[in-house]
Amino acid sequence: MTIHPKLLHVPKHQRDNMVGATLSDSLRQQYKRRSARVIKGDSVKVMRGEYKGVEGKVDKVNTIEGTLEIEGIQREKVRGGQVKVPIHASNVMITGLKTDDKYRSAMLSGQKQQAAPKKEKKAEAKPEAEAKPKAAKAAKKEKKEEETS
């Protein structure tokens, strides 16, 4: 399978969107979304092609070609042995999501990831902090003047 020449230099964040698949009806109702990006560990069902109806977990995601390797989908080589068959992401439906990642689960549920609250500096504390070193410097200056005189 060859890649389209226009897709050779597409940035990763745009290629990731091309590895999306539709969600099953139960997941659509739960997350109120139509599709999601497929990642390793998701459970999918093949909806089109030679392997239609086969379910399995995603073993590998190829973002350059937009394909998935699913466990249980293999083809026999001419000289013997088995090779995994790449299935395009648009031909599968996600039946189970891997939600170990906090960021992914927050994105799916529609919540924004909140950053840690920043500490606000008090404007009143600055003059006091600056006043103390100035007072200390003035005291040292006075001591030196007393010693020299």
Automatic annotation (TrEMBL):
Keywords: Ribonucleoprotein, Ribosomal protein, RNA-binding, rRNA-binding. InterPro entries: KOW, Rib_uL2_dom2, Ribosomal_uL24_CS, Ribosomal_uL24_euk/arc, Ribosomal_uL24_KOW, Translation_prot_SH3-like_sf. It comes from the Archaea. GO terms for molecular function: rRNA binding; structural constituent of ribosome. Residues 40-62 form the KOW domain. Gene3D superfamilies: 2.30.30.30. CDD domains: KOW_RPL26 (cd06089). Residues 107-149 are annotated as: Disordered. Belongs to the universal ribosomal protein uL24 family. Part of the 50S ribosomal subunit. This is Large ribosomal subunit protein uL24. The lineage of its organism: Archaea, Nitrososphaerota, Nitrososphaeria, Nitrososphaerales, Nitrososphaeraceae.
